[in-house]
Specification:
75% of the residues lie in helices and 0% in strands. The chain contains 12 helices and no strands. It is globular. The N and C termini lie far apart (60 Å).
């Protein structure tokens, strides 16, 4: 059997060592989250009597930068994750093994970058606030909880985090280019937005399945590189996201259709 080819590493990947984060990282992430919520709600109050900022050029640049980051994360991370998974004995072992934190510098580097990017993505909401666009529950809750969960997970080196992160990065590598095109006022087919939301719903189903796999292993006394606390957090997170995204999908793509179209379909 051929041995897997050694991936070509950049110097910044080869020289990276994942920090041994202690539990203060958890309180730090909660602190970031609280500041974020203050910005969301206080910012909207401060902007209420003021005209919206346009910020078109900055918004385009922002979405392009996040697009590039997401695509790099996918290109560097997915091949390594597939190689890592192929080396394991079965599906559960591939999900529950957290040895990649220490044995795969490419994965550990981009996973660490991805986790910290959850704080940087708070700027998405700043743009909404300054431009006086609606900040719905799905938006701020998603940013707030994802950031905290990501920091909690990397602090304890939870095994399923790489699966959660890379599926999210795959969707972001399409979503942020879509946002950039819209900011450029380029006409994008309406079904692209529907496809992105549909993929997010699938992501939540996948997240629930991964979480349940880890829970089953732990409940049966088998090894899994994640605490039961982290698994319960993930199950609650993905289920609540599924409910919110499903509600958004219904309002945006089903209930929002013209009444005449719904009448035609009912005939």
């Amino acid at each position: 059997m051929d041995t897997p080819r050694q991936a070509i590493m950049f110097d910044f990947e080869a020289n990276f060592t994942l920090p041994n984060y202690d539990r203060t990282l958890r309180s730090t992430s909660i602190g970031f989250g609280v500041v974020y919520l203050i910005i969301v709600f206080a910012g909207q109050m401060l902007m209420r009597p003021r005209p919206p900022f346009v910020l078109r050029s900055l918004l385009i640049l922002w979405n392009v930068l996040l697009s590039i980051f997401s695509i790099f994360t996918v290109v560097r991370g997915i091949p390594e994750l597939l190689k890592f998974y192929q080396e394991k004995r079965d599906f559960e072992h591939g999900i529950c093994d957290n040895s990649y934190y220490t044995e795969n510098k490419i994965i550990s580097f981009w996973l660490n970058m991805f986790v910290w990017s959850k704080i940087i993505e708070f700027v998405d909401t700043v743009f909404l606030v300054l431009r006086k666009k609606p900040v719905i529950l799905l938006h701020w809750y998603h940013h707030f909880i994802t950031a905290i969960f990501s920091f909690f997970s990397i602090q304890e080196r939870a095994a399923p985090l790489i699966w959660f992160s890379l599926t999210n990065a795959v969707i972001h590598s399409v979503m942020y280019p879509y946002y950039a095109l819209r900011a450029l006022d380029l006409k994008v087919p309406g079904n692209v937005g529907m496809a992105i939301t549909s993929s997010q719903l699938l992501q939540m189903v996948f997240g629930c399945y991964i979480s349940f796999t880890c829970h089953s292993a732990l409940a049966s006394g088998r090894y899994c590189g994640a605490s039961q606390e982290n698994v319960y957090f993930a199950m609650w997170l993905y289920f609540s996201f599924f409910v919110l995204f499903a509600h958004f999908f219904y309002k945006a793509y089903i209930a929002a259709k013209p009444a005449k179209d719904r009448v035609k379909k009912s005939r």
